[in-house]
Structure formats: C-alpha cells, structure tokens
Amino acid sequence: MRWDTLVHEYDLDGSRLLPWEGYPTPIGAGWCVVRPHTQSQSHTQIDQEFFIGIKGNAKLKVGDEIFQFTMGDIAAIPKHTDHYVINDTDEDFHFYVVWWDENTANGFLKEHAEIGDTL
Predict the structure, then answer these.
(1) Residue 9: how many CA atoms within 13 Å on its side-chain side?
(2) Any idea which fold 7-117 has?
(3) pTM of the prediction?
(4) Where do the structural domains in the chain lie, given as residue ranges?
C-alpha cells in the first residue's frame, strides 16, 4: 500500500482497499490510521463492520460501551450502532475495516450467480 494515497475521512486517514477493479466482492475493506491524541468521527452506518487491530493501542466505543483495542483484536460493529476509535496515545493506531450490508451482498450473489456456490 502506498502511504501517500491515504485520504482523510471520518476524522482518520485511510485507504479503501476492496473491492478491486475487475474483481467483484460482496464486501468493502480499508486500512485506517487514527493519529495520536485524536479520535475518528462518531457515526452510524447501515453496514455491518469488523475492525481488526493492526498496530498500536486505542479504545473503541460501540454504542454505550468502551473497549480496549489493540493489535490482533477483532471487533464486530453491528449496523445502526454509533461507534468511533479513540487514540489517546503518542503513536498511530492502525486497523483494518471490513464492511458489508445485506443489499450489497444479495446484489453481488444475484449478479455473480455462477460463482455463488463457491462463496
């Protein structure tokens, strides 16, 4: 991944890595970096998400709960649930996000029925 291609959105720096052009998938995914002493934007989405901790330490607020979040941790973010990442350390926090929603997944399966049995 080229670090100079990170885009600032949701109050973090990230790169949308899936889907790849010419390779359809029912999911989206991206690399995210929450800079020291910042937090990502609090938001709610129709998508369901998984966050996978890659490097550093942070806190993850999901709904009314706050969790410690670090390298190797996996968090499930239910759709329609407010969430954000808090980095109150002196180091960048890196995580990978995977998202999907039922409509996108069903549309993918319908459009690509010939490969549906292998998913």
Answers:
(1) 8
(2) Jelly Rolls (2.60.120)
(3) 0.86
(4) 7-117
